[in-house]
Amino acid sequence: MQRETFRKTPAGLDEVRTRGRGLDARTRTLLILANGELSVAELAARVGFDPLRVLLALAADGLLERVTST
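The structure assignment produced for this chain is given below.
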């Protein structure tokens, strides 16, 4: 069974440190929590909303990358 997660890229790590892009609180929290270990469902349970759209937007911006593990 494959399990999709997201992890921060070097640009994502830099954003966590610098707050240069001015992300809103929900998006920033999701960026911080995306560690390559928590699944999308586990992230949803922690943030209280379906995070997939935001995760994909962060990935499109180069702040996150998809990780698929078994």
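Interim note for the steering committee: The CA atoms of residues 1 and 70 lie 6 Å apart. The chain has a mean pLDDT of 93.
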